[in-house]
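This section describes the prediction task in plain terms. A model, or a person checking by hand, is given the sequence of a single protein chain and must write out its three-dimensional structure as a string of tokens. No templates, partner chains or ligands are provided. The sample shown here is typical of the held-out split.
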Amino acid sequence: MRSRKFLKAEQARLAWDAPGLLAGVDEAGRGPLAGPVVAAAVILDDQRPIRGLADSKTLTALQRERLNDQILAKALCCSVAQASVEEIDTHNILQATMLAMRRAVEGLRLKPAKVLVDGNRLPTLDVLAEAIIGGDARVKAISAASILAKVHRDRLCQELHAEFPHYGFGGHKGYGTPEHLEALLRHGACVHHRRSFSPVAAVLARPPGQAGAITAAMLGEMVIETTLAEVRIAP
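The expected answer:
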């Protein structure tokens, strides 16, 4: 039986490429105060190239939607998965992201020989894997995964907006914008808010009748601190 140490070494940076199918993996929705974190895995078809693939953050919403349809039509296989708000609050956002990525890879119809993941951390997988910083801009399969994950999560946020229109999820997509923080102060947290995130926890901890004890500016500082903490530990 292989040792645990050896299994970890298999997911280190490789000096050679494993023959076979290559999957790209990326996520969307690590930083928002609400909603699930979404991950996608894509195995592209070299015989059916897709023009315009890029980091989803550099594309317009219309470009992402167009490319999303092309990826679904032309890729050998795709898989989109997520980790729920409850899982984020239970395990923390980093572990929940890794969980969503693992689910995305396991959901592929074809098993890849190697997985390339955007960032500097890897989920636990039973295949060779490599983490690539800036991979969403450098590796087409990761770019494709970033687009699928982003489009899927944006559509989920539109559903949240229809359910709770007073929070404005359709616009800010759950991120800690001034508008979202004002709505959070005014209406409190809904079932889709991440209670482990400092701004949401602060609103939930307000003493009854002391609605003015916390300001949007204070919540904004918490958003910055949460983001900095995530950058220190996250891919």
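For orientation: The chain is about 45% helix and 15% strand.
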